[in-house]
Specification:
Blueprint (H helix, E strand, L loop, with lengths): L12 H13 L4 H10 L6 H30 L35
Helix pairs in contact: 1-3, 2-3
Length: 110
Amino acid sequence: MKLISFGRHRFPAEVIRHAVWLYFRFSLGFRDVQELLAQRGIEVSYETIRCWTIKFGPLIGGRLFDLARLTCQRAQSPLARWAIEAGSAQIFPSTHKPMEGMTSVTSISA
């Protein structure tokens, strides 16, 4: 995976990542993200957040996609599989009893 370069930006990488994450994760508007960051004491304009989402959104999303793909590949490895022996677990009971109050069918006409 290629590292994302946050160089030549006024704010630290953690602030940029958090703003982009808030925008995409919670489907917030730029001004909503601006207010959330202002509550944490970070003064940034909504236009800056818009530029960050355009520039870093696809890069961060691509990294998440790569991580998810690697996780799925690990889960499909033979060592990650579980085997259940036949007869070791009974899923459905052999006898079924109807629930109380469900013995007869009634219809309601309007």
